[in-house]
Specification:
By secondary structure, the chain is mainly alpha-helical. Helices cover 59% and strands 6% of the residues. It contains ten helices and two strands, in the order H-H-H-H-H-H-H-E-E-H-H-H. Helix 1 runs parallel beside helix 3. 21% of the residues are buried.
Length: 252
């Protein structure tokens, strides 16, 4: 067990001992928008996700042999930083006393976002322009944006979406625009759930909740804690790994 995993283990055990309401659930749903900021929800998910990383148990939906030690060490380090920052920010709301004091950037500002874009295009050259800027750490916090697009494109593929007619009310008139590429994700999820016509390996409620959560980053650039990112990937993994898993079963 490397040093970062050991440190994370100590933090998890400490929070478990102090947080008497800790509730470990094998079938926990991704939280609804109204519950996403609750301390109890976050601590429970942190404990579950960090424990999976520490115990090498289906972290992100992977068998552990597929994850390198370098990834484990880096992810553990991010968990430590994020939980320290979270406990600092939520000190007055915690159900226990916390002596941790750790501050960090909660929103990716406009200049950093622009530097990320430019740095991705000319990765090697940009290191010589600004050696203090390291875009790699920001990749983890842009995961919600990627998940949002992944959900949209997966649903389009499932229902064979090409275009739709959209009617909106302007004043006293309804105006319809035909053959639009705009994809009403929330409406589609609700309709599929109501019709119950698909046997998806991932629940509609989880898909909807994750999409809503991921959209927040796209509008605010607020960093989501690593345990929520991990949990979202874990819940969606059956949906995106399903075809590959079925193919492997046929080949076995």
């Amino acid at each position: 067990m490397n040093s970062k995993v050991k440190e994370l283990t100590i933090i998890v055990d400490d929070i478990k001992n102090k947080f008497k309401a800790a509730n470990i659930s094998k079938d926990r749903a991704f939280p609804y928008k109204k519950d996403i900021s609750k301390v109890e929800v976050n601590l429970n998910i942190f404990i579950e996700q960090a424990s999976k990383l520490i115990n090498k148990n289906k972290f992100l939906g992977f068998d552990f042999h597929e994850i390198t030690e370098a990834d484990v060490n880096e992810i553990a380090s991010i968990y430590i930083t994020d939980i320290q920052q979270y406990l600092t920010l939520k000190h007055d709301e915690l159900p226990f006393n916390s002596n941790i004091a750790h501050w960090g950037q909660g929103v990716i500002n406009d200049r950093d976002l622009f530097n990320i874009a430019r740095g991705y295009v000319m990765r090697d050259s940009y290191r010589d322009i600004d050696r203090n800027f390291i875009p790699d750490i920001y990749k983890i916090y842009s995961v919600p944006f990627a998940l949002r697009l992944a959900i949209e494109n997966k649903l389009k593929k499932i229902i064979g979406f090409e275009s739709c007619d959209i009617t909106r009310r302007y004043g006293s008139k309804n105006i319809t625009k035909t053959a639009q590429k705009e994809f009403p994700v929330t409406m589609i999820i609700k309709a599929l759930k109501k019709m119950d016509c698909l046997n998806l390996p991932c629940g509609y409620s989880d898909i909807s909740s994750i999409y809503s959560w991921a959209s927040n980053f796209c509008h605010t650039a607020e960093k989501e804690p690593i345990w929520m990112i991990s949990f979202a990937i874990e819940k969606l993994s059956p949906l995106f790994d399903y075809d590959g898993n079925k193919k492997n079963e046929r080949l076995a």
